[in-house]
Design a protein that fits this description.
three-stranded antiparallel beta sheet; 3 strands; globular
Amino acid sequence: MKAVYSITKSALVLEDGNFVLTYGIEATDKESGSRLSEFRDVSVNKKFTERIVSTLNSCEAELCHFHEIIIDELNR
């Protein structure tokens, strides 16, 4: 099964009623399009999240390494 990675967007509502847009990453099956996994709220920085998506796709990262790769990037 081959995964394709894409960016997702969601909003966090803060205690004061304001909200913050956050970006996550979703893994979908290349053939069926079904969602395999998701890592929500990776960053508030869209370009940073897009860079991780690009890396995952260009390296054809295996699904079993999906979360680990994101955590490594966050810890850089």
